[in-house]
Amino acid sequence: MSFQQNLQMGKTAESDIARWLIKRGQSVLPVYEKIIDEGKGPQLFTGGEGLIAPDMLAICKGKVLWIEAKHKTGFAFYRKGNKFVTGIDLRHYLDYLRVAAITELPIYLLFLHDGGVVKDSPPGPSGLYGNYLSVLSQREDHRSGKWGKSGMVYWARDIDGGPLRLLATLEEMNIK
Question: Which pTM value belongs to this model?
Fold first, then answer.
């Protein structure tokens, strides 16, 4: 799949997740819409560093939190742990931790999974999974240097002993 196809798939998932949040009483502010596409996502500029920022802010009754929306074909089956896991680029994860510390706003990381097959894994579960980054940072399943430029960090579903909770099925999100 090309970069542009991946980008479009990600934007569609962000829109699906934003609609789901709005149905639950949140107001949603996308962090970026740019005329010039630099191939970069949203950034938070501070006194000396530019950090990768989450995709949107959600606001409800005076409470504000960051939302990072990820779209995945499916969970990977981690044979060593005998469980389904999903993850993100380690560099992005470390930047999100810094963004949370600097802004003093919580970050909620959401994974929208289609239930497809990843590499040689069996078909995985589908739906919207997530949790607060503060919880995820305390309950990483594992890290791997095999994928991506900086490596990856992974989490398991709560029924597999991990912190990722099923928040909505695809049907509940009106996706399938």
Answer: 0.87
